[in-house]
UniProtKB/TrEMBL annotation:
Gene3D superfamilies: 2.70.98.10. It comes from Paenibacillus taichungensis. This is Aldose 1-epimerase. InterPro entries: Aldose_1/G6P_1-epimerase, Gal_mutarotase_sf_dom, GH-type_carb-bd.
Amino acid sequence: MTQQNAAFEEQFGGIPAVWLRFNQFEAAVIPSVGANLVAFRDTEQGFRYLREPDQEQMDEFMAAPAVYGIPILSPPNRYEDGRFPWNGEVYELPINEPATGNHLHGFLHDAEWKVDGFGSDELESYVVLSQEVKEGHEFYKYLPFTFTVTLRYSLSSLGLQQQLNVRNNGKERMPNLFAFHTAISVPFAPESQASDYTAKITIGQRRELNERSLPTGQFQPLTPEEEQLKEEGVSPFFAAMDNHYTAEPQNGRNYMELTDHRTGDKLVYDVGTSYKHWMIWNNNMAGGFFCPEPQMNLVNAPNVQGIPAEEIGLIGLEPGELFEQTSRLYPIKAQK
């Protein structure tokens, strides 16, 4: 490809992908594995902002796509005993996490998505992908609702934009619960170390989780490092984290900001205020990446009593209604 701005089909690690290029940015989406956006790069600086599977990790990626790139989860996180009460019915989801006896992460992150179109002009390079859930779909087998999810990714001078749309095509109110298990690369600059980085995230309160990783309904006091996480920033590997927080926007924005103190560069992940919760997971401090996960609903929300649905993000869509939320990943260059 000689032109600078482009959208085209080409493989990523031997799997068909749609690539986007705009100025110094490039990104790649794999439609057949959950429409996972597996790469977002600044090619001028050599920065790779997401945890990408390399050629030797493609089998690993296929087996566990939720720990690379930007996987979409619905319904997200854990549901006690697979139970999912909704509209007076109790649906049964498969127990796919035997250690906790829960259902985990839903049915969209490893599904094959349709490419509706892609293109490029002087303003942006984009791709649109969709998932139509209806009879015969794995999601419908357990949660029999008919709807269309659309993901639009675009690169422009403003970085990477993600637009999520959900439309209820059915005749009854449906659950509208989504999250993104976004895997951010630490370090993202090739010459830097993980120790050069601090992360700030607009967390609020930390929810207590029981031995099955389900909320107890109680809050836990934030540690000094967690206070730093929400204020000036702290290493994303200060402790082993698989933590559940309320989101508390600051200055009207709900975001994660990762700073490389060696270069002065920052990566901002502005997720939008529909995501009322953050999950933060750092793979037991193994290094290389961590996951600041914007999540609409409290873990296990349909089974939680006594808290207003709006507060815990247990929201639904009426027939014909459309939900939309936009998120953005973008760099802030070091001040010279």
